[in-house]
Amino acid sequence: MTKTSSNSSNIAENLTQIQLNISEYCLKYQRNPQDVKLLAVSKTKPAEDIRKAFDAGQTCFGENYLQESISKIHELSDIDIEWHFIGAIQSNKTRELAENFAWVHSVDRLKIAKRLSNQRPDALPPLNICLQVNISEEESKSGFTINEIETVVDEVIALPNLNLRGLMAIPAKSENLQAQRKAFAEMKSLLQILQTKHPQINTLSMGMTGDMEAAIAEGSTMIRIGTAIFGARNVVGL
Ligand SMILES: *Cc1c(COP(=O)(O)O)cnc(C)c1O
């Protein structure tokens, strides 16, 4: 089982533990550990925790809340972090995303993709994006439906300042490995369908602290881990 009793005093140890978990699950499911990237999700956590993780070798960090993340990006501008945005996107905030992040995983409307492409500064490389899929078809979650994805992919690929890397999902919570795997397996098939036309799309951003084994089993290439690295978040609902 993935360890979840972590706290911020041992961030370096937690990262080592997660890398061990990744290796273990890759062995179990016949994956290459180099194909599973770790995104450290630092929402609600202070910049000093991010610095500790960076000093322990972690370079990619995921944030959910724009204002909070911009302060941390400025505070940590002396170190070479790759910033990923994974939170809900308000359309009037796309400019700050386009200017400050390397990746946005949570693109859930075509309008957002167009704005990000228009607002990406010329001096920066294209913005890496994933399209969020509402894989469990929950009312409360954003994202494209499986049926919408193929059309949207064709439109997003045509946008000049974006680099469409893949798909992202946050499936409905389940404690059961088989149920978790089912949702992730649908993501994997969806990616395979897209790859017949667009072989360069190869990212599956899926798996969190509670379902990383299932995600790795079904082909995740980027797991987004917060709690197991930085400890529990105090704020209810985040
Ligand atoms: C908070 C969050 C995570 C990390 O969740 P943990 O359960 O703390 O590992 C991953 N992805 C998204 C989109 C999140 O909002």
Automatic annotation (TrEMBL):
It comes from endosymbiont of Galathealinum brachiosum. Pyridoxal 5'-phosphate (PLP)-binding protein, which is involved in PLP homeostasis. Belongs to the pyridoxal phosphate-binding protein YggS/PROSC family. This is Pyridoxal phosphate homeostasis protein. PANTHER family: PROLINE SYNTHETASE CO-TRANSCRIBED BACTERIAL HOMOLOG PROTEIN (PTHR10146), PYRIDOXAL PHOSPHATE HOMEOSTASIS PROTEIN (PTHR10146:SF14). Its cofactor is pyridoxal 5'-phosphate. Residues 18-233 form the Alanine racemase N-terminal domain. The modification N6-(pyridoxal phosphate)lysine is found at residue 43. GO terms for molecular function: pyridoxal phosphate binding. Keywords: Pyridoxal phosphate.
